[in-house]
Amino acid sequence: MPDVAAIILAAGRGTRIGTPKLKLVSEGEFFVNIIVKKLKSSGVDRVFCVIHPEDYDWSLEHIPGVSLVLNGETDKGMLFSAVQGIKKLTDEKGVLLFPVDHPFVEVSTLNLILDIFCKYPDKLIKPEFEGKSGHPVIIPRFASDRMIFTTQDKGLSETLRDVCGETEIVRVSDRGILKNINSAEDLK
C-alpha cells in the first residue's frame, strides 16, 4: 500500500445545485461519506476533508474518521482548497485529490491508481475513461509542496501540469471518474 493521504475537496457552496455538495445524498448516504468509505476500503487511512467553516458543526456530526480543514475563501477555487489540505500533510509520499462531487468512482479504480502510483511515485497519476481524464488524481509529494508556493491565478488542472512534470495516464473502465455532480439533473 502506498504512503498516500487523501484530500476531499468539499468547501464549495453548491450554488448551482442548492446545497453544499458534501451534503448531497446518493442511496441514503452523503457524498462525502461514500468517498471516505471507498478510500478506507482502498487502504487510504489518512483522510482530510476541506470544508467551508459554515459546515464545521455539521461535518463534526456527520463525517467520522477524517481530519477537517477549513477554507472560508471558497471563491478562490479548488486549487486554494487543495493547498489548504496539503499544508496539513506530514511525510506522505503522495496525495490523492478527490473532489466531493465525484462520489461514483469505483473502489477498483482507486486501487488501480494507487498501484500505479507505487510504480511511478514521481508522476502525476491521472485516470482516463474513453479518452477523457477525470478524478481523482494522485500527485507526488514534491509537487504538492510546490503547490503551496504557486500563485493562485491558475486553475487546479493547469497548476498540476506545471508542478508535477510527468503524468502517467491510467486507462480505466469507470465512467464515475467523469461524473461530476453540478445539478439535480446530474444525479439521474
Describe the structure.
The protein is built from 6 helices and 10 strands; from the N terminus they run βββαβαβαβαβββααβ. With 188 residues, the protein is α/β, with parallel strands linked by helices. It has one domain (4-187): Spore Coat Polysaccharide Biosynthesis Protein SpsA, Chain A. It has a 5-stranded mixed sheet, sandwiched between helices. A hairpin with a 2-residue loop joins β2 (25-26) and β3.
Helix content: 25-40%
Overall mean pLDDT stands at 90
How do the strands line up in the largest sheet? 5-4-1-6-9
Low-confidence stretches: none
- The CATH superfamily turns out to be Spore Coat Polysaccharide Biosynthesis Protein SpsA, Chain A
Q: What structural category characterises the helix and strand content?
A: alpha/beta
Largest sheet: 5 strands, mixed
CATH architecture: Alpha-Beta Complex
CATH level 1 class label: Alpha Beta
- Order of secondary-structure elements: EEEHEHEHEHEEEHHE
The CATH topology is Spore Coat Polysaccharide Biosynthesis Protein SpsA, Chain A
Continuous helix count: 6
- Principal-axis shape: globular
Number of domain units: 1
Sheet-strand content, in percent, reads 15-25%
